[in-house]
Specification:
Its cofactor is pyridoxal 5'-phosphate. The chain has 14 helices and 14 strands. With 412 residues, it is an alpha/beta fold. It is globular. It binds 4'-deoxy-4'-aminopyridoxal-5'-phosphate (PMP).
């Protein structure tokens, strides 16, 4: 559960003295260690953030892929452009238009999921010791990238309306006072992973204004923006600020993660550097996946599919929030997300989510301890609960088991 197996493994590793210094930051995330346990069928996993793609029309996808192979096989199975397939980049601009973004396909770089986009952006901007400002908490996968490039993460607080502008200003001032260089603000404005909150429209403007004034680039990571439950998508930050925002998108949650297709939309000069970085990393993003996603978008009512996903996730959110209200012991608190996959649960004082995890797994329920989402050891009194994958009944059962473990813990 903790890092013990990794440490044992490292001590047996005869290459240990030869690795680059940056590998010191490459440790298995708490989530990864959990996956093995949480995937046992008897465990209700409220841990992973796997999208539930069971509603996808496999016949449509299969038909599109079959046609792709038969009609365009030699192109689809060949190397392609480092920037990505032009037709898909065009379609991506249509997807982004749903959030108010007007962009040219030339400024889109296709990546291997938005995870690779985070990697490429960090690769072209961060030297060891540079600072990246992140929300507190922040996405575990991005923190891992920043660590791997030896960037230092400075957290800025969030509340129910997202990143707190005053906290951002204070963080920027403190870093500058210390003579350090801030390379960018990494933010997840919609249905935050893991906090579940959405940055209000007013906050977006203030954050953009602060970053412009302070010369801090904004990295807007938005894989969940189209998965709101109760309203139309909010306007992306990039829609109001083209010159100082790099926007990241993904088909992982609105279609399927297995294709590994995401993208970055960047100011022109940055786009050039991203393409060079992409070429050195992969030569080109997978042509076959890109063309398959493109065919899906061209032949299927993808917006109707997203609507179905939203309805499914809303039902699961309702199941989780209802179960929390009915079953959680006093002293716990949580937010009610209006989109995405996650609820952030704060525990009564004195209870350590990481220490409790082995007991929870014994009780056949898994979650991710809050510490995974902080670069600085905070978060032990909180956990992330995902409602995306299990059915409503399983979610309720999982929350029941978790409540039982917590009650025992409170009595101790
Ligand atoms: N950013 C955030 C906030 C995420 O939650 C995830 C996936 N969990 C990613 C990026 C990466 O997604 P992908 O590479 O599948 O596009």
């Amino acid at each position: 559960m903790d890092s013990t197996p990794a440490r044992t493994h490292a001590s047996l590793d005869s290459f240990v003295d030869r690795y680059a210094a940056r590998t010191a930051g490459m440790t298995a995330s708490e989530i990864r260690a959990l996956f093995a346990v949480a995937s046992r069928p008897e465990v209700v996993s409220l841990a992973g953030g796997m999208p539930n793609i069971s509603g996808l029309p496999l016949d449509v996808v299969g038909g599109a892929i079959n046609q792709l192979v038969l009609e365009h096989g030699p192109v689809a199975m060949q190397y392609g452009s480092g920037q990505g397939v032009p037709e898909l980049r065009e379609q991506i601009t249509e997807v982004m238009r749903l959030e108010g973004i007007e962009a040219h396909p030339d400024d889109v770089v296709v990546t291997v999921g938005s995870q690779q986009a985070v990697d490429l952006v960090t690769r072209i901007f961060c030297d060891p010791g540079d600072v990246v400002i992140c929300e507190a908490p922040s996405y575990v996968g991005a923190l891992g990238v920043f660590r791997a490039y030896q960037a230092e993460v400075v957290h800025a607080e969030m509340d129910a309306h997202g990143l707190v502008p005053e906290a951002l200003e204070q963080a920027i001032a403190a870093v500058k006072r210390a003579g350090r260089t801030i390379k960018f603000l990494y933010t997840i404005p919609n249905f935050h992973n893991p906090a579940g909150v959405t940055m209000s429209a007013e906050r977006r403007q203030r954050v953009l204004e602060i970053c412009r004034r302070e010369g801090v680039l904004v990295l807007e990571d938005n894989p969940y923006g189209l998965l709101g439950f109760d309203r139309e998508p909010l306007r992306a930050m990039r829609a109001d600020e083209a010159d100082n925002v790099i926007y990241l998108g993904s088909f992982s949650k609105t279609f399927a993660p297995g294709f590994r297709v995401g993208w970055a939309l960047a100011p022109h000069p940055v786009r050039e550097k991203l393409v060079l970085a992409q070429e050195s990393a992969t030569l080109c993003p997978p042509q076959f996946s890109q063309m398959a996603v493109s065919a899906y978008l061209a032949t299927h009512d993808w917006q109707g599919q997203i609507k179905q996903f939203r309805e499914m996730y809303r039902e699961r959110r309702d199941a989780m929030v209802g179960a929390l209200e009915d079953l959680m012991p006093a002293g716990c608190s949580w937010n009610v997300p209006d989109g995405g996959f996650y609820v952030w649960l704060t525990l009564p004082p004195g209870i350590d989510a990481k220490a409790m995890l082995p007991r929870a797994v014994t009780a056949r329920v898994a979650y991710v301890p809050g510490t995974a989402f902080f670069a600085d050891g905070y978060g032990s009194g909180a956990m992330r609960l995902s409602f995306c994958y299990p059915t409503a009944e399983r979610i309720r059962e999982g929350v029941r088991r978790l409540a039982g473990v917590l009650e025992d813990e409170i009595e101790l």
